[in-house]
Write a structure and sequence with these properties.
This protein is an alpha+beta fold. The chain folds into two domains: 30 residues, no CATH class; 90 residues, no CATH class. The strands form two sheets. Strands 1-2-3 form a three-stranded antiparallel beta sheet, with no helix packed on it. Strands 4-5 form a two-stranded antiparallel ribbon.
Length: 140
C-alpha cells in the first residue's frame, strides 16, 4: 500500500513525490472519505446546544435507568414498535433527495434503504429520544 503523495501514474506503476517508483499490478484509489465526519472541522460553542450524540446518550441512559430499577436484566424492542419506527423513518427518508428511488448514492445500502440519515430536524430527534417508552420494549 502506498500512502505517500503520488506524483504520477505511469505504465509501470506509481511514482511518488519522494522520487520513488513503485511497480504495481493493480491500483485501488481510496480517498479516505468518511461520510460520518462531515462536521469534524466545526467548533460549536454556546449554551444549550445539543447534538445527535447527546440525544443518543440520553436515551441509552434512560434504558439503563429502567434496567437498574429492576425492569429486567435485558430489554428488546417489541417487533411492532421496531417495525412502525422503521416504516415511519423510511417513509420520511423517501421524501429526501438521498431516499428518492432513482437516486444512487452511498447513503443507500445493498437493499436500497437509506439507513444512515435522519430525515427530521435535531429538535424532532431530541423530542423523540428524550424519554424511553418502556411499552416499546420487552424486558427479560
Amino acid at each position: 500500500m502506498i500512502t505517500e503523495g503520488i506524483r504520477e501514474i505511469t505504465p509501470r506503476g506509481v511514482d511518488t513525490r519522494d522520487g520513488r517508483a513503485h511497480a504495481v499490478d493493480a491500483i485501488i484509489h481510496g480517498t479516505g472519505f468518511q461520510a460520518s465526519r462531515f462536521l469534524t472541522p466545526m467548533r460549536v460553542a454556546g449554551r444549550s446546544i445539543i447534538s445527535f450524540s447527546e440525544c443518543e446518550v440520553q436515551y441509552v441512559r434512560g434504558c439503563l435507568r429502567l434496567l437498574l430499577a429492576g425492569a429486567g436484566r435485558a430489554m428488546h424492542p417489541r417487533a411492532e414498535a421496531h417495525d412502525a419506527y422503521n416504516e415511519r423513518i423510511d417513509a420520511e427518508n423517501r421524501r429526501m433527495v438521498w431516499g428518492v428511488a432513482t437516486v444512487n448514492s452511498w447513503y443507500r445500502n445493498e437493499k436500497g434503504r437509506s439507513a444512515q440519515n435522519w430525515p427530521g430536524s435535531l429538535f424532532e430527534y431530541w423530542a423523540q429520544t428524550r424519554e424511553v417508552n418502556a411499552a416499546d420494549y420487552v424486558f427479560v
